[in-house]
Amino acid sequence: MISYAFNFCFCNVFSITFDALIFIQNLKILKDMRKAIYLLFICIIVLTACQNQKNTSTVTASYENSDALVAAAKEVITEISIDDFKTIYDGEDYFIIVDVRTVEEYDAGYIPGAVCVPRGVLEFKIGKEEVWDELGLYIPEKTDHIILNCRSGGRSALAAKSLMELGYENVKSLEGGYNAWLEKYPDLIEKIIVEDTGYVEVPTNAQAAGGC
After folding, report:
1. Which end of the chain is more exposed for a tag (fewer CB within 10 A), N or C?
2. SS3 state of residue 111
3. Residue 149's beta-bridge partner residues?
4. How far apart are CA 171 and CA 161, in angstroms?
5. Global pTM?
6. Taking the alpha carbons of 124, 127, 129, 134 in that order, is the dihedral positive or negative?
7. Under a CB-based contact definition with an 8 Å cutoff, are residues 170 and 74 in contact?
8. Residues 6+ apart with CB under 8 A from 94
């Protein structure tokens, strides 16, 4: 009888202990699940914030006018002064001077050695070998020294920013453009001559449409 009571008590104690262990284990699992849910919730918040940041960073900036657009471009590009450019021009280091004005403007007068690739097609032609073959030049490498000029420095600044975005690492915009060069070196220019008509002159409407 005593043995039976002992066995009964032992079994009950064992059963209660086992149930308690299962309960504790369930509590641990529940705690772990809560922790996992909490971590998952944190991850969702972080991923959502990153996505929102990405969407914000891809929003195109807007500007009040073209002057503001050019000013913003000049904050991220490198401009080169006429004097510094003249030093490079007279030196022996390799560089490429690209005139991004219209063909009509270029024909009327350009810096000797400059090649004309208008800004409207520059991004499409800069990396095409056939374009440079026609000009008798090697296609520019991404590390080549490229100097851009326009009429007064606005279009070349925008063009420089575009080339930088295409991965060109050593691009500069000529400060003041062709006008500044012409003012300082009026005898150091070339013009395209049309048969029997002398030098080409830029029409008034072409100047107005050409931008800066």
Report:
1. N
2. coil
3. 99
4. 8
5. 0.66
6. positive
7. no
8. 144, 145
Q: Dump pLDDT digits (tens) for 23-47.
A: 556 656 656 666 667 666 675 776 6
Q: How many Cβ atoms sit within 10 Å of the Cβ of residue 110?
A: 22
**Residue tagged 């000009």 (tokens):** 135
CB 71 within 8 A of CB 153: no
Question: Mapping DSSP to helix (H, G, I), strand (E, B) and coil, where does residue 68 land?
Answer: helix
Identity at 26, one-letter amino acid code = N
User: What DSSP assignment string belongs to 115-149?
Assistant: EE--HHHHHHHTT-HHHHHHTTSPPPPTTS-EEEE
Task: Please state, as a whole number, how many other Cβ atoms lie within 10 Å of the Cβ of residue 95.
Answer: 15
DSSP string, 20-51: HHHHHHHHHHHHHHHHHHHHHHHHHHHHHHHH
- How far is residue 104's CA from residue 192's CA, in Å, rounded to a whole number? 10
Please give the Cα distance from 66 to 42 (Å, whole number).
44
The model's pLDDT over 58-90, given as tens digits with 9 standing for 90+, comes to: 557 788 898 999 999 999 999 999 999 999 999
